[in-house]
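Support reply, case 0932

Customer input (verbatim):
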Amino acid sequence: MANQPPPSTTAIIGPQYCAPATHSIDLIVIREKFSYNFTVKDLNDNVVFIVKSSPEVFLATREDRFLYDANGNPILNLRTSLLAADDNWKAYRGESKEPKDLIFTRMPSEYMQIRTKLNVFLANNNEVCDFTVKADFSGQSWKVLIGRSDNVIAQINRKPRALFSREKFMVTVCPNIDYAFIVALTVTLTSSTRKSSIF
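Our regenerated output:
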């Protein structure tokens, strides 16, 4: 993967989730059939994270996707409105939904887009985005970049699938980069059918 990031560690969720400085990390993000639950594994088939979506409730206005480590400890809560069509997501520490625990916000850079581009703002920043997620023209591959630069820190590829097979993403995270953060972005790329989505 070209345009490697600088050697300094970039920890968003926590330094324990930063890829080793000597090599990148490859992860497989698998969505369960007919749900928005995910299992995240390494290339040795070890479970790294689990994502559980809040159950569908009639007239619910929000959806939560909770990221847990392999032992079931909560890491963050990804929350979106099911009423809005803008596909915004907010990430909170643990299972919280309180503003004081906000880690980052992910939103489209523009409402109408031919080629998907998402801006990511860390908490307390609403000016220049800290990260950008850019899709290719097929809409099946994304690059995560630092700010508005060309500095790639992760690559996300959605694998082709047969009818009724499980959705799968192949994720490569550069050295020193928080792979929990990249996984959190990945599981927001599949949106609930109950809301309008650009994906």
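We compared this against your earlier run and they match. Two observations from our side: Residues 64 and 117 are 22 Å apart (CA to CA). Helices lie at 179-186. Please reopen the case if you see a mismatch on your end.
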